[in-house]
Amino acid sequence: MPIFDICNMLFVVSQLFCLTGTTLPNFFNDYTLQFYLLNDDPRKPVQLSQAAPYFDLIRLSNPFTPLRIDGFFYTKSDLYRLIVHLPGSVTHTRKKRQGPLITFLNLDINPSKIVYFKKLATVQLRIAILNDKPTYIFAHSRHPASSKRFYPRAFLNLGGTSRLVIFSSSPHLVLYIPCIACQSAPEEAEITNFVNLDTIFTSRNKNAWNNVVVDYDEFTWWGKFEGKCGPNLAHYVDMYPPKLCAVMVLGEKFNFTWISLKEHDENKLKYMDRVISQISFYHIFSENFNDEVFVPFKLNFNNFRFAIVTEVPAVMNNLYGIYLPFDNVTWICILSACLATGMLGRRDIKLGKIAQGIEVTLRLISFLLGQGGSSSVAGFSSSRNARTLIVTGWFFGVFILMGNLYQGSIFSYLTVKIPPRVPETMEELLESGITIVTSSYSWFGGAKYKSLLKDEIIPALASSLRENEKWTKLLEKFSGKIEFMNPDLLLSGIPDAYSNFTTFLTRNKSKDLNTFAVMDRENGLVITTKVLKIVAKQLVLENREETFFNIVGIAFIFRNYLSGIMITGFDHLFESGIFSRWEKLQKLWETLYHVRILGNVTYNRFFLKEMGGGRNPVEFHENQSVSFGAIRYFVVICGSLGGVGWVIFLGEIRKYFIRMIRAGWKRLTKLQIKFVQ
């Protein structure tokens, strides 16, 4: 063996004895190693001993770990990736399993041959984060304390989640965990495995050091937080939207400041070096979403629903209410029964059995009205078995069906307000002539609004279904029925909320001002319908069926080293139910805010209703007075029939009394004659 090879082996062995626990054999077994090798002259071969003096230390302690080598040629201002051909002695021919990537790069570049020394060191980080996307970046530096000037901007402004480790290899391998957002130098760490590394990195970087997170949701809020985020209505005040509560909690936990996009744009110089992340809670998901730059952490499925606003029905105080309980089929059956009854009676009369025909007719009518008895049924058959079957059928058919359905329904129609027939499904709404009002919007800056339903969702559906002519025509027809109402006008004056709708419909030349539909996202529709139920003297019927119009909202955060830490904090709020509790309190608080304008009496009544689960106080029918107008027709009919009955009864009594008087007079006359004789 040549003396040079023996010396080289002894040097490597001596270096292995100096390695810390992080370079123990097989430490990188589950990963793929990648080395960046830089050279200032592409014509010269890459020398591992110069480009990466730490290569032998890492490779010889992990000989079976998959390996990648990437060479770079650099000039004064640029960096180019090269195809590197390495000698066979540093590669291993054995096939190995690929795992998560770990990239090793060298920050110690000779500054004498390059003007942009700091820039070139930072560019390496940018290439690794944006192109190779390793799980970990191990950056070599002979002076770890000075490495702080290289990595902060690259890790804060680029879309990558790689975790950075600074290490030095002279005289032995030492690992340092940096604090990316703060100004302190990296701290030396004793690392035994990658789980331990992740824990130390998170603990060092979960403090944002009062840096800035920019809110990308336009038109949501401006200014500072001045509300409360308690668990109940008494301790939850003026936090719109509810995400501000999550912002306050996580801002205190991770020590960051939250600013709006507007404030950032107006003070770019002030926040230039302080922005560490961007976030959005209310972004409409689309095909253009860049998941390489942003990390989604919450999906919101917002379905459109509709409600019908129409006139309040009046009590049916007329004789017409008697005929309403039955549908067409029932009326046909009743008419057929009446014809059959008349034909049976007519047949008996023709046969000379007038009395029997009248008796059969009255008996059938009494059965129909539920006024017969089991003894009357016995007259239909002399057989006991047949009589039992008839009595059983009569019981279920007459008393249950006729007694409960017919008589009960008549009085219900005369005393209860029956809601009008309005569209209950999307198909019925489409076929009706009712105007549809929507106020869900997209905001494009300033005071410019666009209808989310008419200008975005329907055109998107029509575009995706353009090959289906039937659907295209339906969407065009539906779009023609929709009128977009500016959200500022919708609840601009709460006491006049209903008149705002009628004014809007009049302006848009709607045919029917008393009946119209409101279609919005579920959250907005709830508030609108509650306000209309209070201020309007109209009936508001909410439809529970979901429409086929919906949008997917997405919450996302800028992809960097901080995104995983922030998402974990948000997930805890979502999974524990705290965030959903804030959303419910916000809806209630906003509705109460609008209702308070209507006065204390209305506010107190509405507050009690909402605290009671959204139900009105229970009213028992025994305590409700029934108007005479609802039953006066029955009183007149029954009174007339009763009067006729009394006349007949008195007529029968008159004959009986006359007979009695005559009989008594005859007896008295006979007694007188007998007495005289």
Automatic annotation (TrEMBL):
Bilayer topology term: Multi-pass membrane protein
InterPro entries, per the entry: Insect_Ionotropic_Sensory_Rcpt
GO CC, one annotated term? plasma membrane
- List the transmembrane segments: 394-416, 547-570, 630-650
The protein's predominant localisation is: membrane
Highest taxon, organism lineage: Eukaryota
Sorted UniProt keywords: Cell membrane, Glycoprotein, Membrane, Receptor, Signal, Transmembrane, Transmembrane helix
Question: What are the subcellular locations of this protein?
Answer: Cell membrane
Q: Using the record, list the residue span of the signal peptide; answer none if the entry has no such feature.
A: 1-25
Query: Which protein is depicted?
Result: Uncharacterized protein
